[in-house]
Every structure is written in C-alpha cells, then in structure tokens.
Amino acid sequence: MPLRDHFRSPLDDVRSWDGLHAMWPAMIVQKLNDVLPGAYFAEPGVHLGSLYEIDIGTYREPTTEPDGADAGEGGLAVAVATFAPPKPTLILEPRLPLQDVYEVRIYDSRRNRRLVAAIEIVSPSNKDRPQTRSSFVGKVATLLRHGICVSIVDVVSTIDFNLYAELLEFLDCADPALGAEPPPMCTATVRLRQEGSRRLMDSWFDPLTIGQPLPSLTIWLKEKRAISLDLESSYEETCRTLRIR
C-alpha cells in the first residue's frame, strides 16, 4: 500500500498524525524483533514536548534528622556548615524549544546495554523552526559522534525542510542525490566508520513520495554487521491497527 498524506485533507480532517507517530515505533520494534540477533533488542521511545529525556537522578534516603546536621559518633547529631550560594549574576526566562520525540533505539545487551542504533521518526515540531531543526540536527550529530547508526524517517509533507540535508550542511558535507531542492520527505541512514587513519561517513538516502511504498532501512549494529528493516510493512501494520485507510 502507498504512503498516505497524514498532514493534509482529506485524511488530516478525520485522523490525527500523532496517532500514527505514537503507534509506529512499537510496530517497528515488532519488525526488528524478527531480524535482530539474539544479543540485541529494541525499545520504542515517545517523549512529548522535550527533546531529551532525563535518566539520571539524585535521591535522598528518608531521615528524621534536621537539615544541617549529620550523625556523628554515638549517633549524636553534629552540626555542619551549610553552603550559601551567591546570587546569580543574571536571571532570564529562556524560550527553550519544545519538541516531540518519536524514536526506536537498538541496544547491545552484551555490552552493558550499549546503544548501537536509533531510528528517529520526524514530527512537525522537529522541523517547523530554525531552532528546532538545529536541535534535531545536533542530537543526530551527537549520536553519530558516539558511533551510533542513525536513521531518519520523515513523512511530514507540509513543511519544506529536509533534515538530512541540514545534517549534512552541519557536518560540512553534501549529497548530490538531494538535488537543488531537497524533497521535504525522505528516509536516510547515516553512520561513521573507521578506515585506517580516516573516519568516513556512509549514508543511504531515499526520497519519499505520497502514493509510493516506503523503502527498507539498512541499520548497522556494528561496523561490519547490518540488518534490513522493512519499513513499509511496519507502516502498513500501523495504519491497519489504527484503521487508517
């Protein structure tokens, strides 16, 4: 079945695009489970309104002792000096870009749950403003820098920016396949690899067209091991589950 236009009438009049984006990562995980080697596993991630998820916290055990006192010898409370922080030199109310994140991450369980690949499903909030496009590109560049293969899946038809093209511009690179006017919708997989003393970047780019099937994604788990993800079947299963025709 072909790619639908989830962002324009008539489909946009009756079904919301964010239902597709919320369900699609789970369907991709199901497809990946059929092809991933045993040591690898995939997890969906949907974070609304924030580009980055906080996963490190500071915890304090419950205590009946008053603040400013530590237990000394014999269990007696000993007063300790408290730090009085100086006043800030500037107070602002920043406008931090809020973005919705729809992604699938693939981990290697043999290496302490090491992240090896990420599939980023682009939402309108990732590409509607210069600062959000920069944030998205910066996130992808950071993942690449850490040796993580990144796939971008962009089916947003109403915003004429190509995040793969902006990533290449950020990295001071170019892809002739993009042409003079890069298409607004595409898939792209990018990874870094070492060849002797040189660090090279490989990319796989496919433009997307309404009415045409989606391509398969090449996903690299390590430098010489890759799998193929049938993106079309995961998309069709998502539409079938949500009763999107």
Number of domains: 1
- What's the number of extended β-strand segments? 10
Number of helices in the DSSP assignment? 5
Report strand order across the widest sheet.
1-4-5-6-7-8
Distance between the termini: 10 Å
Regions with pLDDT < 50 over 5+ consecutive residues? 51-65
Name the shape in a single word: globular
Can you put this structure into words, describing what you see?
The chain is α+β, with helices and mostly antiparallel strands and 245 residues long. The protein has one domain (11-50, 97-242). Helix content is 24%, strand content 28%. The chain has helices at residues 11-14, 17-35, 130-145, 163-170, 231-242; strands spanning 40-47, 69-71, 77-79, 101-108, 114-121, 149-154, 186-195, 198-207, 216-222, 225-230. The strands form 3 sheets. A 6-stranded mixed β-sheet has the order 1-4-5-6-7-8, with helices on both faces. A hairpin with a 5-residue loop joins strand 4 (101-108) and strand 5 (114-121). The radius of gyration is 23 Å and the shape is globular. The termini are close together. Mean pLDDT is 85; it is low at 51-65.
